[in-house]
UniProtKB/TrEMBL annotation:
It comes from the Bacteria. This is Fumarylacetoacetate (FAA) hydrolase family protein. The lineage of its organism: Bacteria, Pseudomonadati, Pseudomonadota, Alphaproteobacteria, Hyphomicrobiales. GO terms for molecular function: hydrolase activity. Signal peptide: none annotated. Gene3D superfamilies: Fumarylacetoacetase-like, C-terminal domain. Keywords: Hydrolase, Metal-binding.
Amino acid sequence: MTTLTVKDLLPEDGTKGTLVGRVWLPQANGPAVVAVRGDGVFDVTAKFPTVSALCEEDNPAKALAAVKGERIGDLEAIVANTAPDGRDPKKPWLLAPLDLQTLKAAGVTFAISMLERVIEERAKGNPASAEAIRKEVTRLIGDDLSKLKPGSDQAMHLKQVLIDQNAWSQYLEVGIGPDAEVFTKAPTLSSVGTGMDAGLHPKSTWNNPEPELVLFVSSRGKIVGGALGNDVNLRDFEGRSALLLSKAKDNNASCAIGPLLRLFDDTFTLDDARKLDISLNVKGADGFVLDGHSSISMISRDPTDLVEQTIGKVHQYPDGFVLFLGTMFAPVKDRDAPGQGFTHKRDDIVTIAAPQLGKLVNRMRTSDECEPWTFGIGALMKNLAQRKLI
């Protein structure tokens, strides 16, 4: 991992928006909630012990603006000290910009990714079979379902046609049916941030990044801001069986979120988030380059619908939650042998970017090679109590 700079982190408009992060403070042996401003990084933990608490405010951006905080350093120096290689443990470094929120993810929310999930299922996790199946599935279903509203009469008619042709799939059920797929991505506090290594299960031989918008939602169901995310996916595990979803999605360092949380304010709104174009770049040590993108404007279900299907009378989140919205990106470019498609290799550098949210940069390693996750909810509560912050 090369040393990151502020250019590798901030949105195109710099610090004009309301930017929130978390920084590890060696002198406190724990994390700080910080406001990232033009004149530095400011610790606001005395007012907001957790990002979750800040997101519970009626107007989080306004509440943060009213707090001066304690300046802990320049963003440039903190960013440069974040990557695990060469990190000085006596100096601050960036963390993922969330803490007590539950980590949720929506799947099969774009037509093109829905088709790839069907292909995975039929290939039984074998990438060599994917190309032939892709052609057959496209022949039966078509390649443009973007205008098909999930749960509509038209969608239900298509469902019956596909059932009659023995072409129905559980992925089509959540892709065009009335109920969205929403699952728990990873344990609370387990996310890695920008500059850190992201993890792949060491037994996986077919996997890919998933560039996504991550919404931050309060316990009342109010969407308060967004960040970028990589919902790292193991195509071979999930392709073998949907019951292996937890193993395909939840491994050490397999949930990357960052670089910062941008709260909604006059410079960035939910409507802006709905129009985001998210880019992906993968650079391998072998010289391989993969580019892709995901346009939130092409999502099959509106973000508010996905949030409403996640929280309500049947499920509550007292500390709020974050929600990965899914991706339209599905890598089919061959990396090695023809027909084998894409899979990660050790030391791939993955950059997920959006003009309004900056860049999330991670190096890919196997999960057992990544820094182990040791600082959980109990450790956070103990640390904040010792610092007399709660």
